[in-house]
Amino acid sequence: MKPNPWKPLRLKDLPFRDQLLAELEAIGDSLRKGVKLNYLIYGPQGIGKTSVLLSLMERLNEHGEVNHVRAIYLNPEWELLTPSDFEALLLDLLSRFNIRLDPYGIRRMISEINRGRLDGALQLMDHLLKESDIYLLLLIDDLPALTRLSRYSDVRTTPQRFFDAIVESDNICMIASAVTFQSLKRALGKVFPFITLRELSPLDVGEVKALLEDFIGGSFEVTDEAAYEAWRITGGLPLYIHILGLELTRRSVKVITAEHIRRVVRESAINPWGLFNLQMRLLHLKFTPKVGSGISLRILREIVRGEYTISELAKRLGRHYQYIATYLRRLREAGLPIEIKDGIPKIKDEVYALWLRNASPCNITF
Between 60 and which of 71, 129, 340, 362 could a Cys-Cys bridge form, CB atoms 3.0 to 4.6 Å apart? Predict the structure, then answer.
């Protein structure tokens, strides 16, 4: 088991994702045959989107010399994609994959990048790839973060034009990820109808048990009731199962029951030293600043204290109904696990709700 659950897996055979990886890997073969598909995978944080993309890159580049399909990975949330960064990325691609270099074409591509026209550089890159009979899969993690492109004064390319250039190219294909369907639709604009969507499904009870036993090793026994409770609490998210496995190995219990699962999750979520506590802070700090952290926290804590309709929340917080409804919509679009049933907002993530209910204000920020 990895000691760091937040480090994505990078395996050619990713557990329980073989069918999805085979489906995505076939995109490269289709591209070589003239059938182009752009894929977008989406799902909540912790479901394994980054691991899927990194594992796909391992698979594609292993046989890249034979099938002429290459893959590069880009995470605009981790890396600032300035024109100079983009230039380095494309030049590194050209040098690593033995693409025939046309000096005039290279100069034109760099000129387009220096002018801030990243879409023009992609078009020229597509031409170079075509001449070399190379096909490129651009793996973009957290695609909505590319909207930051328009923040740079030296960039003359909007995110939509960047995506247009990918969709209109012949030898470049995109496989991207995002947390929510709504964020994808907003980021892609008019090219959205040309994209194939794929929602990542959480693990089922049997897969949760197998993954948990793999994480904690053979010295522990996980009962069927414990596996069901772990699935119910974690929602089948691989990241949460990994954190739970690490927390269980810190205890000396040999036979893990449903009660052990509930107690371990509660202790880990409430206490500042717990790994679930750290994950909840990371989740909270990742999404709430996009909406407004102060009012968001007040709304979320009222939601977990009782079953209130949006109207009742507005009265309790001294705000208008539309004000609260707008913030709830923004929180859901940002990726926080909120659902509204019969007019009553609820936190779908049981661990996050537990943390919000018990965490002190000083524990919510670093």
Answer: 71
